[in-house]
């Protein structure tokens, strides 16, 4: 095939993204994206000594997931991260000095590109989701993930949207489970994080005594390589692990109409979580609040949040009803 010709037009790609009920890997869609040069060395030069937060976890395989609440955190530059991951002796001091590379992995995950490159907005154009049928969507609406070998995200589903993930450097292995497997994955809201529902099962090393139903789940396993884009449809569970010394990926969540209903559910969950949290012993409550959720918000704010979610949901219903121009229940 001609390398310059993409297999699908933006319109066709959007149609596929919005209708597919199965995960899919897009190939030969991003060959001309400048973001393909965003390896860790390049980003280290661009960030020029700026520190970012890394989450550290143990490489040893436990029977329970390594939730974010059980990880350590360090602030470091990408240069320090690269030196550590190459086993350079300079790491005897510095942020990674307590963490032996052979025993730990590090993950700078969930970094909003708009935030870390706010002083370099021209870099947003390196990411062109317009090729997937989303004109105007670029790095500003995207998130960056940089990990070492073994870095992983516990199995979870995202309440909102579907997800497009571009692999830039190294490979990542994705274990995906369909929404219909939810009952076999022992879902939990602890640790709490808005829009993430976690599985109690470590899907890479399951405890089948504790979670016998997991035997009925069907994993779709895919290894994502540089230049490929993975589509994770709405409400598909995923566990992700880095299988090369250094991995870099970029993702963007695509909003869907069904998100309006999900926002109402999430607003209710948040109210319940905050109510329980304010009623329990404050000294040990943080174990079940993910670091992304910095503190329990007030009941007042939560009510406003719920109000907005319900209003938006009804607005969306009204709009779709007037399109159909016929009453529905």
From TrEMBL:
<feature type="domain" description="JmjC">
    <location>
        <begin position="105"/>
        <end position="269"/>
    </location>
</feature>
<dbReference type="Pfam" id="PF13621">
    <property type="entry name" value="Cupin_8"/>
</dbReference>
<dbReference type="InterPro" id="IPR013296">
    <property type="entry name" value="HSPB1-associated_protein_1"/>
</dbReference>
<dbReference type="GO" id="GO:0005737">
    <property type="term" value="C:cytoplasm"/>
</dbReference>
<protein>
    <submittedName>
        <fullName>HSPB1-associated protein 1</fullName>
    </submittedName>
</protein>
<dbReference type="InterPro" id="IPR041667">
    <property type="entry name" value="Cupin_8"/>
</dbReference>
<comment type="function">
    <text>May play a role in cellular stress response.</text>
</comment>
<keyword id="KW-0963">Cytoplasm</keyword>
<dbReference type="InterPro" id="IPR003347">
    <property type="entry name" value="JmjC_dom"/>
</dbReference>
